[in-house]
Write a structure and sequence with these properties.
Elements lengths: L16 H11 L2 H8 L6 H8 L4 E3 L14 E3 L2 E3 L3 E3 L12 H12 L3 E3 L7 H5 L6 E5 L5 H14 L3 E5 L9 H6 E3 L2 E2 L1 H7 L3 H8 L21 H11 L6 H10 L3 E7 L2 H10 L3 E4 L13 H12 L4 E4 L6 H9 L4 E4 L1 H33 L12 E3 L4
Parallel strand pairs: 4-13, 5-6, 6-7, 7-10, 10-11, 11-12, 12-13
Antiparallel strand pairs: 1-14, 2-3, 8-9
Helix pairs in contact: 1-15, 4-15, 12-13, 14-15
C-alpha cells in the first residue's frame, strides 16, 4: 500500500506541521492560502530556507544518563517555557476571525512571547490586555515619521516593554502569486471568487457580518477615503520608506525606554553594528522568503553572526522552521530562540486558537525528544558539538 499523509481536515489528527499546512490549504480560499504561502519572484529563497537545514547533521551522545528535559529559557530578561516566539505576521484576521487574539492567547498559554504586527487586524491595546501575555510590538518606519512617533508613544501607553523594528521591508517584495490572484489590491480575480464559494465555513467565520477585516493600528497614517482594506493596502506600499538607515535605529533607541529588537538582518556585519548600537536583540531573517529572492538563509548566517555578536545582545532567527529538529539545530549554533511565522499560522488556519496550541505542542514534543536523543538534559547545554556540517564532513 502506498504511503500517504493525513488528508482530512481535523487539526487534532495532525502529527506534524506539514499536516497542519495541508489542512489549512483545504480550509482557506485559494487567494488567502497563497497570501500565506507565497514568496518573492521565483521563490528560490523560500525553498532555500527549507533545504538549508540538511547542511547540518546531528552527532548524538548516547551514554550520557539523560534525565527529564528542561526546555525553558530566558528571553530579554524574562523566563519562558520554550525557546520559541510567535513572530509578527500581518492581516491574520483573513485566516480566521480575531486571528491575532487567538495567536496571542495560545502564546500566553504556552508561556512564550507574541509579537503583534504593525499591520494587524487587532488593536495593540487589545493584545496588551491578553492575560498573562508577554506582548511585543512590531513597527515599520514609514515616510510619515510623525505617525511613527505617535505609534511608539501609543505602545508605551499601552504597557509594551519591547519594540521590534523590521528593516527588510522598506522596499516591498515582488510577490507574483499575490499579483496573479488579485485584479486590484484586495480584489480577487473572478477565478478566485468562484473558488471562494467552495469555502462557506471561511465565509461565515471571516466575512459575515462585517466583510474583510480592517487594519487596526494604522490610525493617522491613512488619509480620508483610504480607510478601506483596498485603500490601506495601497497607502502602506507608498508609505514604506527606503531611506531607512542606522540613524533611524539610533533615534528609536534614544526615544524608546524599553527593549528594542532589530528584525530582518542577514549580514553578520550589520548584526555586530546593531549590538554596538545598544539594541537588546537581533532577528536574523529573510522575511520568510517574501522579500529578496536568491537571498541567503538566516540559518547560513547564524554561526558567523553569533561569533560577531557574542553576548552583547540576544540573537533570534526565523524563516523556514517547521520541525523541532530544526529549532534544536539553530539553538546549537547559537540562537537564543526561533521565531515562528507560517508554522503557527497553519495551526491558526486549521483550527483557530486550538490549532495554534496543537502546533506548539507538536514542536515542544519534537524539541524535547530531539535533545533527549542527542544526550542533552537542558536547552542551555546545547552547542555546536551536537552537529556536523555535512558539506565539510
Amino acid at each position: 500500500m502506498k504511503r500517504r499523509p493525513y488528508t482530512g481536515t481535523d487539526y487534532q489528527r495532525a502529527l506534524n506541521i506539514a499536516d497542519l499546512e495541508r489542512i489549512a490549504r483545504r480550509r482557506l480560499p485559494n487567494f488567502v492560502f497563497e497570501y500565506l504561502q507565497g514568496g518573492a519572484d521565483d521563490e528560490r529563497t523560500l525553498r532555500r530556507n527549507r533545504e538549508v537545514f540538511d547542511d547540518y547533521l546531528f552527532e548524538p551522545r548516547t551514554l550520557t544518563r539523560v534525565g527529564p528535559r528542561e526546555l525553558s529559557t530566558t528571553l530579554l530578561g524574562q523566563r519562558h517555557a520554550l525557546p520559541l516566539v510567535i513572530g509578527p505576521t500581518g492581516y491574520n484576521g483573513m485566516l480566521t476571525r480575531h486571528g491575532d487574539i487567538k495567536l496571542a492567547t495560545a502564546a500566553s498559554g504556552a508561556n512564550i512571547p507574541f509579537v503583534l504586527s504593525n499591520v494587524a487586524t487587532t488593536s495593540l491595546e487589545d493584545i496588551a490586555a491578553v492575560e498573562g501575555l508577554n506582548a511585543w510590538m512590531q513597527i515599520y518606519f514609514y515616510r510619515d515619521r510623525d505617525y511613527v512617533r505617535k505609534l511608539v508613544d501609543r505602545c508605551q501607553t499601552a504597557g509594551y516593554e519591547t519594540l521590534v523594528v523590521t528593516t527588510d521591508s522598506a522596499i516591498y517584495g515582488n510577490r507574483e502569486w499575490d499579483l496573479r490572484n488579485f485584479r486590484k489590491p484586495m480584489q480577487p480575480t473572478l477565478r478566485n471568487l468562484a473558488h471562494l464559494l467552495t469555502r462557506p465555513r471561511w465565509i461565515a467565520d471571516v466575512l459575515i457580518p462585517d466583510g474583510m477585516p480592517a487594519f487596526k493600528n494604522l490610525g493617522d497614517l491613512l488619509p480620508p477615503g483610504k480607510q478601506s482594506v483596498q485603500g490601506a493596502s495601497a497607502v502602506i506600499g507608498q508609505q514604506l520608506d527606503p531611506t531607512l538607515n542606522w540613524d533611524d535605529i539610533a533615534w528609536l533607541r534614544d526615544r524608546w525606554p524599553g527593549k528594542l529588537i532589530v528584525k530582518g538582518i542577514l549580514s553578520p556585519d550589520e548584526a555586530a553594528q546593531a549590538a554596538t548600537l545598544g539594541v537588546d536583540a537581533v532577528v536574523l531573517s529573510n522575511h520568510g522568503g517574501r522579500q529578496l529572492d536568491h537571498a541567503r538563509s538566516p540559518f547560513e548566517v547564524l554561526p558567523e553572526a553569533k561569533a560577531r555578536v557574542g553576548q552583547r545582545c540576544q540573537l533570534f532567527i526565523d524563516s523556514g522552521f517547521r520541525r523541532g529538529t530544526e529549532v534544536v539545530k539553530a539553538l546549537a549554533l547559537g540562537a537564543d530562540a526561533v521565531w515562528l511565522g507560517r508554522t503557527t499560522l497553519y495551526g491558526l488556519a486549521a483550527g483557530g486558537q486550538a490549532g495554534v496550541e496543537h502546533a506548539l505542542e507538536i514542536l515542544q514534543g519534537e524539541i524535547d525528544r530531539t535533545i533527549g536523543l542527542l544526550g542533552v538534559d537542558r536547552i542551555a547545554d546545547l552547542d555546536a558539538s551536537a552537529l556536523v556540517n555535512s558539506r565539510r564532513g
